[in-house]
C-alpha cells in the first residue's frame, strides 16, 4: 500500500465519520452549523496523516491484516491530533495552522461577521476550546465504532489511554518550559519525547500492534524503532520551525522564534553561546514584534553556536538506531520496509 | 442508601482512581506534580455529586444491583464534569468556583510564585485547558476500568458519547447566546436543555439504566422524569445565580449579572420590561464593573418585570410533570422514592 493510497483511505474514513458525527448537531440547533463545518474543514484540510500511517504499519508489523476497520481505527488518531492542535493554537495564540487561519481565528471572524457582542477573540478561544473537546470525544467514538472487535479493542484501550495522557502531559511540560525560559537540553528532550516521540510514533505503532494482539516483545521492538524516530521527527520540526520554508511549514517564517519556543535547538544555542551571542538570544528570542532582520540575526546566531550541527547529529544518531531496530526478526519484513520509508519522510533522510 | 452514604462512596472511588491515575505522572517529570495535585484538589473538593446520584438511581430504577463497580462508573461523571467546569471557567474568565480560586487562577498563582517568564494569566489558562483535557480522558478511563463487564459497557457507550457531545454543544450554544445578547426565551431554554437537563439528569439516568441493559421503554420513562427535572434544576440555578447566597453558591453575589449570562430569567425580563426597565437592563447587564448597588438595582428590575415569578412557574410545572412520571410502572418503586428526593434537592422543592 502506497503512502498516497493510505492517506486517501484515511481521509475518506475521516470524511465519512464526520458526516455521521456532525449530522445530529443540526437536530439540536442551526447555530451549531459552524461548529461542525469548522471541525470538518480543519480535520480534512491537510495534515500528513503520519500517526494513522504508523498505526497502520504497527498493525501490519504485528502480522495484522489490512482492513477498512483498521483504517478507521488509525484515522481516529487524527481527531485526537485535531484536539491537540486546536488547543495548542489557543494556548500559543497562533494565528495560522497548516497555512490557514487557526480555529480560534476562524471563530473570531464569524463573531465579527455576525456583529455579535463582546470580544471576538474571546469568542474565538471559547469556541476553539469546545471544538477541541469535541474532537477529543469524537476520536474516542471513531475508535470504538471502527468495527474492530471488542476483544481487539480491549487490548488497545490501555495504549489509547496512556497515549492521550502522555500528550497532554507533554504539552503541559512544554508550557512550563517556555515559562521557565528553557536552557536545559535534558528538559527540552523530555518535552520532545512526550509531546512528540511517544505521541506521534511510538504509541500509534503500539496502538496498531495492540489491535493485532501483539505481545510485549513486539511492542518493545517497535519502541526501539519508534522512540528514536519520534525524537528525530521533533528535532527536525524544531529546525524547520526556525529555518524552514513557510510554504512548507504552513506557518510564517520565524514564528517559533517570535513565540520563543524552548526547543532542544535553542537549549544547545544557549548552552554554547558566547557572551555576545547569549545577549542576542536573551534580547530577541520570544519578542512578538521580531521583524525579518531580527529573524535573520537570530537564525545566524543559533547556527554560529554550533546548535544546528549538534541537532543534526542527534537526528542522525536516532535515525541510525531506528534503522537497526527495524532488523528485528519480530517485525514483519514488508512492514519494516514501509516503516523505513515513513522514518525517512518524517525525518527527511534519504532512505 | 442515603444521599450522604452515596456521596461518600463516590468520593472514595474518585480518590482511589485519581491516586492511581496521577501516580505515573511522577515518572514522567516532577514538574507535573501541580498538574496532578490541582486536579485532585478540584475534583475532591466539594460538588454535590448530583450526576453520579442520578446514574446510580437510574441503574436501580432499571432493576440493577448496587455494586462498587457501579459506584466507580457513576463517579466517572464527576471527571467529565471537572472538564466542563474547568474549561467553562477559562471561557468565562471566572475567578472562583465552589468558593475557591478557579483552576486557571490556581496555576496563575503557581506561575507568580515561581517567578516564571511571561503572563501568569496566560500560563494559568494554558494549564487549565490541558488539565480539563486530562479530566475528560480520565473520565473515560474511569468508566472503562470501573470493573463493569464489557457487555454492559457496550450498552452504555452510546449514551456516554451522546452525553459528552451534547454538553459541549450546549456550552457552545451558551457562548453564542451571550454573544448574541440573548432575548429569546426559546433559545435560552434550549441551552438549558442541552447544557444542563440532558447532561445533569437525563443522560446520567440513561447511563445507569444502560449499564443494567434497560430497554427503550424504560429509557423513555426516565426521560419523562429527567428532562423536566433537569430543566427545573437549571432554572433554579439561574435564580440562585442572581438572588442566591454566595456562601451557598460558591460564587460572589451578582457574578452572573456582571458576566451578563443570558438565561431564561433574563430573556423573560427583557421580554416583559417597559422602556425604562429595558434601558436599565441594557446598561447594567454584563457590566464587569457592576458594584453592589448596581446588583441590587438589576435584581429589583428583573423581579419587577415578573420574570422571577414566571421562572418559578416553569420550575413548578416541570417539577409536577416529573413527579407524575415517577409513577410509571416501569420504574422500580424504591428507586422512584430516591429519585423523588433527588428531584426535590436539585430544584429545592419540599418533597
List the helices and strands and how they pair.
The structure is a homodimer of 351-residue chains.
Chain A: H1 3-28, H2 33-44, H3 50-61, H4 68-92, E1 96-97, E2 100-101, H5 103-114, H6 120-144, H7 150-180, H8 185-210, H9 216-243, H10 246-249, H11 255-259, H12 264-272, H13 275-284, H14 292-304, H15 307-325, H16 333-347
Helix pairs in contact in A: 1-2, 1-4, 2-5, 3-4, 3-8, 3-16, 4-6, 5-6, 7-8, 8-9, 8-12, 9-15, 12-15, 13-14, 15-16
What would a concise description of this structure say?
With 351 residues, the first copy, chain A, is mainly α. Chain A is 77% helix and 1% strand. In chain A, strand 1 (96-97) and strand 2 (100-101) form a beta hairpin.
Structure description:
The structure is a homodimer of 351-residue chains. Chain A has 351 residues and is mainly alpha-helical. Chain A has helices at residues 3-28, 33-44, 50-61, 68-92, 103-114, 120-144, 150-180, 185-210, 216-243, 246-249, 255-259, 264-272, 275-284, 292-304, 307-325, 333-347, and strands at 96-97, 100-101. A two-stranded antiparallel sheet of chain A has the order 1-2. In chain A, helix 1 crosses helix 4, helix 3 (50-61) runs antiparallel to helix 4 and helix 13 (275-284) runs antiparallel to helix 14. The radius of gyration of chain A is 21 Å and the shape is flat. The mean pLDDT of chain A is 94. Chains A and B meet through helix 1, helix 4, helix 6 and helix 7 of A and helix 1, helix 4, helix 6, helix 7 and helix 8 of B.
Amino acid at each position: 500500500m502506497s503512502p498516497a493510497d493510505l492517506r486517501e483511505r484515511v481521509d475518506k474514513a475521516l470524511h465519512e465519520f464526520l458526516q455521521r458525527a456532525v449530522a445530529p448537531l443540526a437536530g439540536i440547533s442551526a447555530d451549531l452549523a459552524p461548529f461542525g463545518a469548522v471541525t470538518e474543514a480543519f480535520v480534512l484540510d491537510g495534515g500528513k496523516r503520519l500517526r494513522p500511517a504508523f498505526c497502520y504499519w504497527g498493525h501490519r508489523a504485528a502480522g495484522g491484516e489490512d482492513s477498512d476497520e483498521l483504517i478507521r481505527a488509525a484515522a481516529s488518531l487524527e481527531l485526537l491530533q485535531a484536539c491537540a492542535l486546536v488547543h495548542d493554537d489557543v494556548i500559543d495564540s497562533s494565528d495560522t495552522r497548516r497555512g490557514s487561519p487557526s480555529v480560534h481565528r476562524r471563530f473570531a471572524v464569524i463573531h465579527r461577521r455576525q456583529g455579535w457582542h463582546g470580544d471576538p477573540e474571546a469568542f474565538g478561544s471559547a469556541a476553539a476550546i469546545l471544538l477541541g473537546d469535541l474532537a477529543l470525544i469524537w476520536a474516542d467514538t471513531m475508535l470504538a465504532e471502527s468495527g474492530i472487535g471488542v476483544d481487539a479493542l480491549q487490548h488497545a484501550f490501555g495504549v489509547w489511554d496512556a497515549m492521550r495522557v502522555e500528550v497532554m502531559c507533554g504539552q503541559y511540560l512544554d508550557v512550563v518550559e517556555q515559562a521557565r525560559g528553557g536552557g536545559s537540553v535534558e528538559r527540552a528532550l523530555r518535552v520532545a519525547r512526550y509531546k512528540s516521540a511517544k505521541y506521534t510514533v511510538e504509541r500509534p505503532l503500539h496502538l496498531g500492534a495492540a489491535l493485532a494482539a501483539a505481545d510485549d516483545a513486539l511492542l518493545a521492538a517497535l519502541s526501539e524503532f519508534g522512540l528514536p524516530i519520534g525524537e528525530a521527527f521533533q528535532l527536525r520540526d524544531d529546525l524547520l520551525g526556525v529555518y524552514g520554508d513557510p510554504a512548507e511549514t504552513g506557518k510564517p517564517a520565524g514564528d517559533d522564534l517570535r513565540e520563543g519556543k524552548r526547543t532542544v535547538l535553542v537549549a544547545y544555542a544557549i548552552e554554547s553561546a558566547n557572551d555576545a551571542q547569549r545577549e542576542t538570544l536573551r534580547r530577541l528570542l520570544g519578542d512578538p514584534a521580531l521583524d525579518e532582520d531580527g529573524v535573520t540575526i537570530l537564525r545566524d546566531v543559533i547556527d554560529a553556536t554550533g546548535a544546528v550541527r549538534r541537532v543534526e547529529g542527534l537526528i542522525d544518531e536516532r535515525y541510525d538506531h531506528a534503522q537497526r531496530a527495524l532488523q528485528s526478526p519480530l517485525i514483519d519484513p514488508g512492514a519494516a520496509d514501509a516503516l523505513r520509508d515513513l522514518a525517512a519522510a518524517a525525518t527527511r533522510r534519504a532512505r
